[in-house]
């Protein structure tokens, strides 16, 4: 089988080489392609892009290693301003560490009681290991920011291992041994109390999560294990408790390490009869890619953490093709939004004093450097704002990736990624939208960071495209190895 396949492939390549000029393109040669968007075919509602200041990293963004107050503000503005980075999700870590320990997030319950009867002496320090300041400053630049409060572990007393670290289970879920009481209600109340403290600060928590990577534990930092059955046992307590206190809050499940791992948890949760006890399926992109729709019963899904992990700081757009480059992130996001109906994408840290590659912005004392990953986020989310709806879009070329989003006010964002090493001349037809008159292009490549790059008037097409109601049409160029977002207004 294998040798036959190789012969066939070789024959095809030889035939192609003699019959067409595919090997002779020059960097200035232009190919053409067509893009069609159908605004009448609607998919998921978008939440946006984001990042986190967990594990005390928010303190670095707010001066602990020398970033001056004016640069603290500027870095946060670069990330969250609608006209710069365009982010809108802040993922905060609901700390489980008693007291202040460098690199950990302090718990609102420093003295864990001996039994679930209490006493629960909650403490709010108006700081939350610098996450309150991160959230407040993000909200200053994006008043609609979506706050995701997520616990890595329950307080130690509520778990089978007795500590916040080293995994273990919430006491009260099936399979949790070494427990003398059921702590599920106590843990639910504790999570709600955290939301209440943010409410007292005037901040609405949009999404509440009880887990971080429950498939990847035990580990030596704050961590807790759960499969889908165990998640059912806890979420059936958390869900009504949280909704009673905050009717508008959404509940997350379950921040698994990869899309496949998340699917398994969701499947078991459903088997256990718990599919109604969450609102948003949350997953990380570390161990597996999204690839296809989630089994979330029609509920939205959100990628809530990912970064290079072990690499050196990489600020490039497209130099080596390494996974942390901005161009690659543009493609990861495309795949998640289009193939898995993902509503948003959250980078791991926002800003960190480091030589590594876990943050969107690298800090070095009072200096800061922006990675091109942020420009990939911005190319989507400066134009497809929170609340926009993804609509059908396709391109005639395999290496030209397109998605499209209709904003609440009727403006349309069409981000196009050209993976070829040559430019494409494109005809873009948008059916189902007649209420726009110009298309403004924003270019991101090795030399441009979401830079305005031309504006054309669109032609109105009567009954054109795939919609009965007509649409608009325009011509444009998409540069090689670039992302170009067309904003129709
Ligand atoms: C918040 O707490 C951290 C220690 O966790 C401290 O370094 C920082 O100065 C505090 N920030 C404010 C605004 O009080
Ligand atoms: C059982 O719980 C106790 C008390 O919380 C703890 O000290 C111990 O390490 C736990 N044992 C195991 C095997 O987790
Ligand atoms: C829930 O959201 C609605 C619509 O945004 C708002 O009018 C209402 O005040 C919110 N309710 C609470 C309890 O926050
Ligand atoms: C901050 O970054 C600099 C340069 O990368 C490094 O030398 C220093 O150790 C870092 N400081 C802290 C506290 O992380
Ligand atoms: C684009 O951003 C990078 C940092 O990501 C910066 O070094 C570069 O100067 C910027 N280029 C332009 C044209 O603004
Ligand atoms: C419509 O919404 C987009 C995205 O929020 C915004 O950039 C644009 O200015 C708005 N346009 C109008 C005409 O309100």
UniProtKB/TrEMBL annotation:
GO terms for molecular function: glucosylceramidase activity. The keyword Signal applies. Residues 1-22 form the signal peptide. One of its GO terms (biological process) is glucosylceramide catabolic process. One of its GO terms (cellular component) is membrane. It holds the Pfam family Glyco_hydro_30C. It comes from the Eukaryota. InterPro entries: GH, GH30_C, Glyco_hydro_30, Glyco_hydro_30_TIM-barrel, Glyco_hydro_b. Residues 387-486 form the Glycosyl hydrolase family 30 beta sandwich domain. Belongs to the glycosyl hydrolase 30 family. PANTHER family: GLUCOSYLCERAMIDASE (PTHR11069), LYSOSOMAL ACID GLUCOSYLCERAMIDASE (PTHR11069:SF23). This is Glycoside hydrolase family 30 protein.
